[in-house]
């Protein structure tokens, strides 16, 4: 008698389905972890009590330079002579033009950073 040639293909299909289910469940767990981190945890908690210098280094230094000298973004070494703390906070929260994105910091973090930058005269 001849063996049924469909059986190896059926076994491979069943194994493939099992592997797909395992990988999918792992992906769902990772997605949930990422959503939880975005909603209330993760890096945001670390920067709540950060100093203004740390806040600047985390989000702003890539464009404005680590020493406030500029780069892709404008020089901020004397930004306090051009803008008040409230104006700086407004720029941090709402962005400015197409180059400065909105919402890098909000609330207390934006206030702390704006006050620190306003002292730069």
- Sheet/helix structural class: mainly alpha
Rg value: 26 Å
Q: How much helix, percentage-wise, in residues?
A: 55-70%
Low-pLDDT runs of 5+ residues are 42-47
Q: Distance between termini?
A: 93 Å
Mean pLDDT: 83
Largest sheet: none
Strand share of the residues?
under 5%
Shape: rod-shaped
Give helix and strand order, one letter per element, not per position.
Answer: HHHHH
The helix count comes to: 5
How would you describe what is shown here?
This protein is an all-alpha fold and 121 residues long. It has 5 helices and no strands. Helix 3 packs across helix 5 and helix 4 packs across helix 5. The chain is rod-shaped and about 90 Å long. The N and C termini lie far apart (93 Å).
How are the secondary structure elements laid out?
Elements: H1 6-40, H2 43-46, H3 52-64, H4 85-94, H5 107-118
Helix pairs in contact: 3-5, 4-5
Keywords:
single chain, 121 residues, mainly alpha, 5 helices, 61% helix
Short description:
The chain is mainly α. The protein contains 5 helices and no strands. The longest helix is centred in the N-terminal third of the chain and has 35 residues.
């Amino acid at each position: 008698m001849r063996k049924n040639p469909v059986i190896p293909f059926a076994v491979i299909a069943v194994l493939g389905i099992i592997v797909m289910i395992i990988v999918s469940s792992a992906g769902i767990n990772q997605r949930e972890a990422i959503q939880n981190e975005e909603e209330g945890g993760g890096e945001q908690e670390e920067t709540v009590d950060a100093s203004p210098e740390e806040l600047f280094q985390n989000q702003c230094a890539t464009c404005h330079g680590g020493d406030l000298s500029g780069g892709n973004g404008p020089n901020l070494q004397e930004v306090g002579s051009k803008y008040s703390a409230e104006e700086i906070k407004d720029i941090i929260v709402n962005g400015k033009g197409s180059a400065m994105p909105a919402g890098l910091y909000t609330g207390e973090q934006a206030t702390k950073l704006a006050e620190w930058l306003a002292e730069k005269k």
